[in-house]
């Protein structure tokens, strides 16, 4: 259990005309991150909605039901970049066809060896459920990598303490939280909950959100985002629990070094030992 370097991308949304423009922007961020020697790169939730702005033959934006049409090209792009730069990429989220007429908002993990894993978002916001007809995922998974065990919990998911408890109980030390929020209220809901989950479970949280605007795409015309790498609040870590953070609503990426061994140290003998001191006689022990 050593150190690893992570990067979170504040992806700037803007209307495009071709898939190749999306691919060029993604490649730019991955190439930039690779220059810092990172092992993980995180993209935001719903950043592939940029593809809807390509529009149809009449110049109208594509509907959310059309986003799964891009899934094969999305996967091929990120597989190739993960292999080329020998990095793990959490490719934000992409809307996929879950079968039976259902859509899932699914986080994707791309390994350098070509392996691809998915984690569908488990909790749907009212907009996702009512406006975009999204369906929730059915199970929580964690993912083993050569750098440790991670989980991918998307935006609203981080606002439910139970699911993060389950991820930690399954062995996750790092939670990647791609997000997409349109105003400060939503942004701070997610951000404050990231801090709470890091304190409760003594884990790292890597989070980021979309910035910019898609003028043609419903519900993506406003974005308020900031990347951050968040730690527990204890002596080995920064007092505010912020390893790094971006400039709000700017086009940029942030980088931080994580020491997983420090998590195990504070769980065993920190100023507080919140994971060890759970009152499982009073409430459910997810482990």
TrEMBL record:
Q: Which UniProt keywords apply?
A: Hydrolase
Q: Does the keyword Magnesium apply?
A: no
Q: Which domain of life is it from?
A: Bacteria
Q: Which residues form the CN hydrolase domain?
A: 4-260
Q: Hydrolase as a keyword? A: yes
Q: Please identify the protein, giving its name as recorded.
A: Carbon-nitrogen hydrolase family protein
Gene3D superfamilies (alphabetical): Carbon-nitrogen hydrolase
Write the lineage as a comma-separated list. Bacteria, Bacillati, Bacillota, Bacilli, Bacillales
| The organism of origin for this protein | Paenibacillus lignilyticus
PROSITE patterns named among the record's database cross-references: CN_HYDROLASE, UPF0012
- Report the family membership: Belongs to the carbon-nitrogen hydrolase superfamily. NIT1/NIT2 family.
GO molecular function term, any single one: hydrolase activity
Cross-referenced Pfam families, in alphabetical order?
Answer: CN_hydrolase
* Matching CDD domains: nitrilase_Rim1_like
């Amino acid at each position: 259990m050593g150190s690893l370097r992570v990067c979170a991308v504040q992806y700037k949304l803007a209307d495009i005309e071709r898939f190749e423009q999306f691919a060029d922007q993604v490649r730019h961020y991955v190439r930039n991150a690779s220059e810092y020697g990172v092992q993980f790169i995180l993209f935001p939730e719903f950043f592939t909605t940029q593809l809807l702005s390509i529009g149809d033959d009449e110049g109208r934006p594509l509907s959310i039901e059309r986003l799964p049409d891009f899934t094969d090209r999305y996967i091929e792009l990120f597989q190739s970049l993960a292999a080329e730069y020998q990095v793990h990429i959490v490719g934000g989220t992409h809307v996929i066809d879950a079968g039976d007429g259902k859509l899932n908002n699914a986080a994707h993990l791309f390994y350098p060896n070509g392996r691809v894993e998915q984690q569908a978002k488990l909790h749907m916001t009212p907009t996702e459920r009512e406006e975009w007809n999204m369906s929730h995922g059915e199970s929580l998974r964690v993912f083993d990598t050569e750098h440790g065990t991670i989980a991918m919990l998307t935006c609203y998911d981080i606002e439910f303490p139970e699911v993060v408890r389950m991820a930690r109980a399954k062995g996750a030390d790092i939670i990647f939280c791609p997000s997409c929020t349109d105003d400060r209220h939503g942004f701070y809901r997610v951000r404050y909950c990231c801090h709470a989950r890091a304190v409760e479970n003594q884990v790292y949280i890597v989070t980021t959100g979309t910035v910019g605007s898609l003028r043609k795409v419903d519900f993506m015309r406003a974005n308020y985002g900031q990347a951050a790498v968040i730690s527990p609040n204890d002596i080995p870590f920064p007092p505010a629990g912020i390893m790094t953070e971006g400039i709000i609503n700017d086009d940029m990426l942030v980088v931080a070094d994580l020491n997983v061994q420090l998590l195990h140290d504070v769980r065993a003998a920190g100023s507080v030992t919140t994971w060890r001191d759970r009152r499982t006689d009073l409430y459910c022990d997810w482990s």
